[in-house]
Amino acid sequence: MDTRRNLFDSLVLPAAFLGMVGGSYWAGVRMSSEGCGWTNGLIWGLAWYYLSAAPRGRSQRPYASGWFVLASVVGFYLGGHHGYGQFHSWVQGMFHLHYQAGELVPISPWLGYWWVFLCGWGWGGVAGILLVWSVFRPRMPVWQWGVRTGLAVGMAWVFRTFTLARPDLIMPLYDQVDYSNLPLCPDCACPDCERTVRTLAESMMWLGFYMGGLMFEVSRKDWNKAGFILTTGVGFGCAFTAFEWLHLPLFTTGSLWKYWECSCGLLGGLTLGVCFCLFNRRVPDGLPVDQQSGSLRGWVVAAERLVGLWLPLLVSFYMVTTKESQHYFRYFGMEKTAFMDGVGVCLFIVLTTIGCFVAYRTFLCSGSGLFGPAVSRPGRLFLTSYIAMFLVSWLHTLDGIKDNVSQRFEVALYAIPFLLGIVFFFWISVRRQRFYSARVSGEGPNDVQQDSRIRIPSQTE
Question: pTM for this structure?
Answer without folding.
Answer: 0.83
